[in-house]
Amino acid sequence: MFLCRMKTVGDALIKFDEVLKSIYDKPEINAIKYLAISEVTALSKAQLRAYASTEFSAVQAQKLKKILRALQTGKPIQYILGDTEFYGLPFKVTPAVLIPRPETEELVEWIISIAKQRNELETILDIGTGSGCIPITLKTYLPSAKVSAVDVSTRALNIARQNAQLNDVEVDFIKTDILKQSGITLRNTHYSIIVSNPPYVTEGEKSEMHGNVLNHEPHLALFVTDTDPLIFYNAIANFALQNLKENGLLFFEINENLGKETVNLLKDKGFKNIQLRQDLRGKDRMIGAELTQ
């Protein structure tokens, strides 16, 4: 019965709506179903809409059935397919790394814009790199920059290295724990830009999270305690004080509920020209600051 109802593209579009309506809202379902069917058929979203009567082969129908069953468990479509897109670039993703988010694209766009205005060779460090989406994208759009990235997870670094190869860029990936700075060894200690999208979701915010994130994405990259929610920002800011060049820049993606607190942390440490920016949804989501004497 399941396969009979997915003989054509039109059948599949309807079936995805029926099966996923209890898990996702309508915009998310639309994004998921076109992504899944495009992956199986190699047809674009516009083609799928135009040729809804296109019939699936038996192999294609079986693949869609497998994808839909996995989606019913709450597993994100990006993990099911094994890849995603970030800032127009392809990235492999597994449950070892967070799925790149649109708000992180906005942070990257901000950094690229500022870097292109500066007349200097940028040396960039990304802290807590995960899939490598931030440093790889920065290297792609700022090809003259020297880009490095660190993470505490060996599995995440393996994915990041694969993504650098996939996008044909050179990024120096290093395993280290930013919370244990006495043990950090880097090949460069004077950066013009340091950026981080560290863990920032508090334990108390878990109940507000969608199950597909809570049950499938790596908690190591997501959560901090309620008692010390800025632990990574504090550590990274301290690191930046010692490793940023004069007039170097520090960028963070942040918890939307802790914007003022993060700004005050940076002020207390002596950073200047601090900017708190909202994302396209109007939420406090990113901070830029400058280290000046």
Task: Give a structural overview.
There is one protein chain. By secondary structure, the protein is an alpha/beta fold. The protein has two domains: 4-72, Helicase, Ruva Protein, domain 3, CATH 1.10.8; 96-291, Vaccinia Virus protein VP39 (Rossmann fold). 41% of the residues lie in helices and 20% in strands. The protein has eleven helices and eleven strands. It has helices spanning 9-20, 26-41, 45-50, 58-72, 77-81, 102-117, 133-141, 154-166, 211-214, 231-243, 259-268; strands at residues 83-86, 89-92, 123-127, 146-151, 172-175, 191-196, 201-202, 223-224, 244-253, 272-278, 284-291. The strands form three sheets. Strands 5-4-3-6-9-11-10 form a seven-stranded mixed sheet, with helices on both faces. Helix 1 (9-20) packs antiparallel against helix 2. The model has no long low-confidence stretch (mean pLDDT 91).
Instruction: List segments where confidence is low: pLDDT < 50 over at least 5 consecutive residues.
Output: none
By CATH, the superfamily of the largest domain comes out as: Vaccinia Virus protein VP39
- Helical content stands at 40-55%
Principal-axis shape equals elongated
Q: What gap, in angstroms, lies between the N and C termini?
A: 70 Å
The H-and-E topology, N to C, reads as HHHHHEEHEHEHEEEHEHEHEE
CATH class of the largest domain: Alpha Beta
Q: Give the C-alpha Rg.
A: 21 Å
The SS-based structural class is alpha/beta
Going across the biggest sheet, name each strand in turn: 5-4-3-6-9-11-10
Count all strands and give the number. Answer: 11
Tell me the major beta sheet: 7 strands, mixed
